[in-house]
Write a structure and sequence with these properties.
The chain has helices at 2-13, 37-43, 76-92, 103-122, 131-134, 146-150, and strands at 23-24, 50-54, 58-62, 135-138, 154-160, 169-176, 179-183. By secondary structure, the chain is an alpha+beta fold. A four-stranded antiparallel β-sheet has the order 4-5-6-7. A three-stranded antiparallel β-sheet has the order 1-3-2, with no helix packed on it. It is elongated.
Length: 184
């Protein structure tokens, strides 16, 4: 519960794209097992984020890694940012199932997602000096087959630069009358 509280506090105070690391674990005074710097240096690259006690600085969460083998997803802040973006777009586009699956709709969807990602980029969560370096949104005949269109499946391909400009993590969002799906 303590670490989840640190994540929530970081989200509110600094943003989901900031690492919840080097934060004091409020209310905790000791650990059952002490981890040395040498042990931490071995564990951290393996995605183990340690808790350590520092005299005068308190008990702190050190490290913000995941165990992902994908170098673009090795940090918790990046993984959580991507989850935030994916879930926001998924929820924010569920209205499309009530519209005719045609080019006019695809343009509205691209504009809606672009507006959202532009805000995320302006807040500093995506990398790049211009939007084209920070993200892309595709929703057109190249992202859907005729069968998808005929059966009301709207599919978008989205790329976001979470670590370096123009180095995109790409995911797919699909909406249809029976549900939705997000895949990376």
């Amino acid at each position: 519960g303590h670490v989840a509280g640190i994540y929530a506090k970081t989200d509110v105070e600094r943003g989901v794209h900031k690492a919840p690391a080097n934060e004091v674990v409020q209310g905790a005074t000791a650990l059952q097992f002490q981890i040395t710097k040498g042990e931490q240096d071995i564990l951290n690259p393996r995605g183990v984020n340690c808790l350590r006690v520092f005299p005068g600085r308190g008990l702190r969460v050190l490290g913000a890694r995941t165990s992902s083998s994908n170098p673009l997803l090795k940090y918790i802040s990046v993984r959580r940012l991507l989850l935030y973006i994916e879930e926001s777009i998924d929820e924010g586009t569920q209205w499309v199932v009530f519209e005719p699956n045609k080019e006019k709709l695809w343009g509205r969807v691209r504009a809606t997602i672009t507006e959202f990602l532009s805000r995320v980029w302006r807040e500093g969560a995506l990398m790049g000096t211009k939007p084209e370096e920070a993200f892309f949104v595709k929703c057109d005949r190249t992202t859907m087959t005729q069968d998808d269109i005929d059966n009301g499946r709207l599919i978008c391909i989205i790329g976001v630069a979470t670590v370096k400009p123009a180095e995109f993590v790409i995911f797919r969002i699909a909406q249809w009358s029976g549900g939705s799906a997000v895949t990376e």
